[in-house]
# Entry
Amino acid sequence: MQVHILPLSLRTPKLTTPRSLLTTLGLRALSPGDPKPPNLAATFLISNFIFAYALLSTRGIKRHYNFDHNCSPREDVSKYGEAMVKEGKLDRKTLEMVKRWESAHANAVEGYSLFVGGVVSLPHSAKLGFDEGPGVKFD
# Structure
């Protein structure tokens, strides 16, 4: 196998114009002069973290319906939610919604570590094979 180093004039052209915000976020196609797409791993990790740990958190919905007990937060829905349904302070449909919300939060938090492993290892998996980069050609 021979490796040929191409002259500078034949290499991939450098980015001459700055990327727009939509292109950086991956919402628009790259222009022909862009050497490679942006690495969005940090964007995916941060947005999934906020989704799993903040938006799907059951703390706000339980505080809204007044059965958030900090002394035993894992038992709020099963223990205090059922008691509120029996007392008539909360209907069964709302309690079932809070249970599904809590399950979605648990699923997102449990799957986050697998998601992080996949996103972090993906850029390194391309380095394992022989890949022609800018200025290098394999025969």
